[in-house]
Specification:
The complex is a heterodimer of chains A (221) and B (377).
Chain A (H helix, E strand, L loop, with lengths): L1 E12 L2 E12 L3 E5 L6 H8 L7 E6 L2 E2 L5 H11 E4 L11 H12 L3 H14 L15 H13 L5 E5 L7 H18 L2 E6 L10 E6 L2 E2 L4
Parallel strand pairs in A: 3-8, 3-9, 6-7, 7-8
Antiparallel strand pairs in A: 1-2, 1-4, 4-5, 9-10
Chain B lengths: L1 H9 L1 H37 L5 E5 L11 E2 H9 L3 E16 L11 E8 L17 E5 H5 L7 E5 L3 E9 L3 E2 L2 E7 H9 L15 E2 L1 E6 L5 H8 L4 E5 H6 L4 H33 L1 H9 L4 H33 L10 H20 L2 H5 L12
Parallel strand pairs in B: 4-9, 5-7
Antiparallel strand pairs in B: 1-11, 1-12, 2-10, 3-4, 3-6, 3-11, 5-9, 6-7, 8-9
Helix pairs in contact in B: 1-10, 2-8, 2-10, 2-11, 8-11, 10-11
Classes of the chains: A alpha/beta (221), B alpha+beta (377).
Chain lengths: 221, 377
Amino acid sequence: MNALELHQVGHDYGKQPALDDVDLTVEAGELVALVGPSGSGKSTLLAIAGGLLRPTRGTVRVDGVDLYVVGERERTTLRRDRIGFVFQSSNLLPFLDIVDNVVSPEIVRGRDRRTAQADAISLLAELGLADVKGRRIDQLSGGERQRVGIARALIGGPSVLLADEPTASLDGTRGRAVVQLLRDEVRSRNVAAVLVTHDERVLDLVDRVVPIADGRLSATA
Amino acid sequence: MWFAVRHVRSGRTRFALFAALVALVSALVLLLTGLGLGLGNASIAGLQRLPANAMLEQNGVRLFLGRSLVDLAAVDRAAEITGVTRAEPLGVFTVSVRGASGSTTAGAAADDAALFGVRPGSPLLPAGSESMNASTVVADSSLHDAGYNVGDSIRVEPSKRSLTIGAFVEAGTYSHLPVVYLPLRTWQEIRFGPVDGVGDIPSSAYRQVSAGALQLASGITPAEVQTSLADDALTVMSASTAAASTPGYKEETGTVSLMVFFLYVIGALLVATFFWNATVQRTGEFAIMRAIGASRGRLVREHLAEVSMIAVTGLMAAVGLSTGIAALLPDGVPFVLPATTVLSTSVLLFLVALLGGALSLRRVVKVDPLLALGRTM
């Protein structure tokens, strides 16, 4: 089943088209890289897929639910329960420690704090971050922060994972390690993932590469 | 409030400093409120404790009891009006008293007092006034604090009349002066007698009092009694209006109230400014929270929880601080801060803080989760 489906999606900023006629489907367990130059529409596409930006045209379905037919409140709930985000530069909450950053989406979901904490510690260990309880995020390297970001995106068991240039601030080796980790987790957890990246060094690690230029996907998408 | 607790904890120094600021402003509000109440109390407590809900006074003296002159017959006439359950004559006269030579060490310098003249056995008398007679007075306990004792003789100026203190009672104060109760006749002799005490007292003196303290039946208004009296020279007003007309009362309480009002405004602006700045700085954090699925309602609750934590911490410190300062105030300082006032003032300050914090709510709920992607699209 396609966890993420974009059909005939288009978006204009004023009269300026940013995306046009985009059709994209991502299956559960598949990692798709969206590559293209700056201004090609990658981030707009990611925002639309994540329920953050209403498209001017077309439909977006996550697990078969049309994200933009439902109201704002329900879309927030869908985002909370079914979509995980990995942001550029990790975008962790600076006032929370490492474990609490991972726990935070679970708190938003209303899960029990102690159970969520135990799950977070276990997930972080799985991602190579052991003994992190009580540690602050400013004690981590860039690569480690991205792992925390990945843990935060995965903890709720999302259907769709959207990663926005997660390797942008990392060197080649660390960047590959992060994408490798992403791919492994996407497969083992059966998550449909879209990775927006400039970094051509990691493209061999993904299942499918979808080029985008001038707001249009290539025919192979 | 999971996020709020952790945010406050992570910035504990910043929040502690701000809570200290809230505490200082709140303590100032509490202290000024206590001072305002104390000043008001010192002005009118002697009148407020009277078992009367209306006053009959002379018209045209701006309700100033000390200037008012009412015929004793008018008070008796008021007592006959339907709906007036009691009308007691009251004489009010502020004088200087001095300890009579040899009787006391107090009063070497003159002390001021408010003489309240009442009929012997009058219900206006406070409890413990049984010793009052033509030459024996009962005085408010604050006169005792000034160094006078039971049995001391005091000479009232200007009449040079000597009186003995028979007891100290809870008579209250009037215009910041201890109230001294004495028989109406003695009061009339002091009020209308010759200044140096030598010479005759005019017979008309025994017909005059300052006011009538009226007890009106439920549902009867002072205006109705005034209409029934049908005397343009007299006016009837509620006891609270009469008390509020005490010279200096409105000025004192008004000044303090103005200061307290501005402190409430300052408090609200202080909280508003702090949280406005915090909200602007935290736009990115709110965007991330929204992106991971936090609803607007959740952000509002977390924001208000932070405001509440600061306000409650500051208020608790303020109550402790103001209570401590109040305990250190010298006896003579008019300061009254009952627990109910502390509670009501604290609740009001909390609401003001919440209002100040709520001013930045619009910014909080308008945060676009798209910012979490580091872009404004």
